[in-house]
Design brief:
two-stranded antiparallel ribbon, Helix Hairpins, 263 residues, mainly alpha
């Protein structure tokens, strides 16, 4: 019993170092998870437009097993496991993992797999490392984060549109039709060739237009507003400043903005 306890403790320490440590090995591990997440999302999106053959189902199962192992590892090192499972993002991730392992009721619930996209939000814990490693990310962090939020929303809503409409709405035959509707509603183009039916369809349309346009405007605001730089003020803690700022706008203290040389 003692050896088993020490073994589990050692495993927990090792996993916690990978997920939360500041070593090179830990950073490589988290970058690997990020690449794996992105690859999984691309696979989900690409195969949603095709007929799922045996090779897709086999690949789904293999991915599902890997995701389940990774999910169990995060649960194992969580300081409060019940609270960990109660997180909406964790629940969405668990549903997505299970949908990889079993095609729940066929394509009708296939949209659950797109919830895997929400795992991108988990990569926000890598922000500090991405700032250190990539100049492009440092300069465009707000744009990248806003774009991720918008993309996540688009594909989650596309999956929801497909799941609720494909059996009753002849205009929604595949994910492409659902994506087309979502984008036209989001941009308020509204060609009218595809409309959602029933009360649920109307509510979904309202959510897409209200929430989607808000996210779209947020992205546009970030794109066109003057670029800010991150340099915490040592007095008041204000982080974002104008690129040519000499004094903090909040407290008036002199700020010394670090530069990376002439471009």
């Amino acid at each position: 019993m003692g050896d088993n306890t020490r073994g589990l403790t050692g495993l927990k320490v090792w996993l916690r170092d990978l997920y939360e440590g500041d070593t090179d090995r830990a950073h490589r591990f988290r970058y690997g998870l990020l690449v794996f997440d992105l690859t999984t999302i691309i696979f989900v999106i690409a195969t949603s437009f095709t007929n799922h053959g045996a090779w897709v189902q086999s690949f789904d199962t293999a991915v599902g097993v890997l995701l389940l192992i990774e999910f169990c590892a995060r649960w194992f090192i969580a300081p409060r496991r019940i609270k960990f499972l109660a997180s909406p993002f964790v629940l969405a991730d668990l549903v997505a993992v299970l949908s990889f392992l079993a095609p729940l009721a066929g394509e009708g619930l296939g949209f659950l797999r797109i919830l895997r996209t929400l795992r991108l939000l988990r990569t926000y814990e890598l922000l500090h490392r991405l700032r250190r490693d990539f100049m492009f990310f440092r300069r465009n962090e707000d744009v990248i984060v806003a774009a991720i939020n918008l993309i996540v929303f688009i594909f989650v809503m596309t999956g929801l549109v497909y799941a609720t409409q494909f059996t009753t709405n002849p205009q929604i035959q595949n994910y492409s039709d659902a994506l087309y509707f979502t984008v036209t509603a989001l941009t308020t183009t509204g060609f009218g060739d595809i409309t959602l039916q029933g009360s649920v369809g109307r509510i979904i349309s309202v959510v897409v237009m209200v929430c989607g346009v808000t996210l779209f405007l947020r992205l546009a605001q970030v794109l066109f507003r003057p670029r800010k730089v991150r340099q915490p003020c040592h007095v008041c803690g204000l982080v974002l400043h104008d690129a040519d700022a000499v004094h903090c706008k909040h407290c008036g203290e002199v700020v010394r903005i670090e530069t990376e040389g002439m471009e």
